[in-house]
Amino acid sequence: IVRRGGTPVIFQSYGLCQQSGDGILKSYRELAGVCDRFIGFELTTELAPFGAIYDLDVYTGLMEIEACIGAKHSSFHREPEWERLRLRDETRPDFVVYTGNDFAIDMVMYGSDYLLGLSTFAPDLFAKRDALWAAGDPAFHELNDALQYLGMFAFRSPGPGYKHNAAQFLKLRGWTKTDRAHPQSLSRPGSDVEVLHEIGVRLGAL
Predict the structure, then answer these.
(1) Bridge partner residues of 41 (DSSP)
(2) Which domain holds residue 56?
(3) Which one of 48, 83, 115 terminates a domain?
(4) Which contiguous run of DSSP H or E holds residue 123?
């Protein structure tokens, strides 16, 4: 990834997260020895059994690693993300907190950037939303609300089923030829397509 000019995003694993806090930080420091920049990751077990949400001591240690330029936070809860933003503002303002909370995509209003699975459905509409926010245009809020409706529906339990909803939505938009997801991925019912169509119309995407 580095040789190609990219920035590695370090997804979690059982081997990483089953260590002690000190062990987790040691692993990240070792990564910093082989690349000059990387992005960390916290992932709720609602989406992946090998994920973990670190305590603030570990998160503070992660921020102290210069090569770690930011981290995605996917607890699906606002309060721990607010804690990370506050810690970032107090100790390392250049550190980027990437929200992964598809149930609260307005976290950008509090200072988060984002790496949202939901943006896969409509990257063009997220770009439009972001431009409205940057311009201080109140139309941001209505578009954000409509996108949040899509997120609430697609990320309902079981959360990993959102991937199939993404395939269904992209096919509705004419962006893909099939609405099939990976055969080992969780499936959503075909009746979801009708709801996704209604949301797409509301968004002006269909």
Answers:
(1) 72
(2) 1-115
(3) 115
(4) helix 123-135
Question: What local confidence, expressed as pLDDT, does residue 23 receive?
Answer: 96
**Does residue 1 sit in the same domain as residue 61?**
yes
State the pLDDT at residue 47: 86
Q: Do 70 and 162 sit in the same domain of this protein? A: no
**DSSP bridge pairs for 97:** 71
For residue 56, pLDDT beyond 90: yes
Q: Does residue 46 have a pLDDT over 90?
A: no
Count of CA atoms in the C-beta half-sphere (13 A) of 43: 22
Mean pLDDT rounded to a whole number for the chain: 96
Total number of domains in the chain: 2
122 and 111 in a common domain: no
Which of 80, 115, 150 marks a domain boundary?
115
Least Cα distance to 16 among 31, 38, 6, 1 occurs for: 31
Tokens 């102290």, residue located: 64
The predicted-structure confidence for 110-169, as pLDDT tens digits, reads as follows 999 999 999 999 999 999 999 999 999 999 999 999 999 999 999 999 999 999 999 999
Residues 55 and 130 in one domain: no
The 3-state secondary structure of 82-101, one letter per residue = HHHHHHHHHHCCCCEEEECC
